[in-house]
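Take the subject:
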Amino acid sequence: MSNVNLYKGFEVELFTGSFDSHIGVSADIEKNFSNFVKEPDNRNVEYITTPEKDYKFLYEKLITPRKKLRHWLNNKGLTIIPSSTLCFKHDIQFQRSDIDNVYHQFIQDNYGISIATSSVHINIGIDDLDKLFAAIRLIRSEAALYLAISASSPFLNNKITENHSQRWIQFPKTPSKVPFFQNHDSYIDWIEENIANKNMQNIRHFWSSIRPNGPQRPLILDRLELRICDFVHDINLLLGITAMLELRILNLFENINTLDPLNASIFSNDELSAICDQNEINAAKDSLNSELIHWQDGKKVVCREWIQNLLSDLSTSAEKFNMKHLLKPIYKVLEEGNQSMKWINQYEKGFSIEQIMKISIDDMIKNEDKSI
């Protein structure tokens, strides 16, 4: 692994339950596992990995907590449900995980069950602020691609939806309009203004496809956080998505003038913001088959073709940084379809949602057993 490689860490949200229902045990999980924390709805739980550069270490950091949790859940007759939405028939009432948490009360009152989703947030370490905001601009412009690869939420409440990522359709993006930040100062001003006018309850209440992150937001930042991906149970695919993201950022650093949307797009910042929002909705609906607008020139492009072109652009960098092998799972998704597409195909063949989840849970367990 090259010294040029960036630090990477993950926040992984999971649903717990049985093979046909969502059962929340997050308080017990938090008591028993130091690296797991509760989410506002009890049916969700999250674990966070410490930053690493090497992908072999990242694999272990991602798989080990999940295996330990699964063993604990198994003793209670429970499992991990790989959907990014509440896919089984469920109680549509919010199930509070922490009755005394004021922020959770705010979320329940204002958003309800729409936030009960699971995802994976990918953090990439960038401590140069100019580079960080250039990376945020570029990755936001291409965020729809990462959603399309990861889409895993076509079901909701034991019904099929019309969306490949029902999670991203229903999740309440907040604030509803996010500008393209020109620099750190513009980001600080915007955050302070939105907290002051109550568009945001606090610094955490910035729910968008991507955001700056760091030890003391908004003032001290050291990483980019991509928040758009659905839960990805195949860890090799998650590492492939991460490698594609890292390579794109390294690629940007070598070509700032031609890849930073601030310089390289025909659109104004406001137009770019609107295009990105629309691309994200299109990708949430049809994922790899969606028609998107390219941020550079405004041409329409099928999402799958855009990803193929991007992988081609990154091939030299992938060779240079010895990361080519990591991208193989993405090529497989382009060829075979993402998780949502596979599930929709099974559903159309007559499988029930419970049967589909059982197959995927078995696949998860096989992959975890292989990693011993």
Observations:
- The first helix runs from residue 26 to 32.
- The chain has a mean pLDDT of 96.
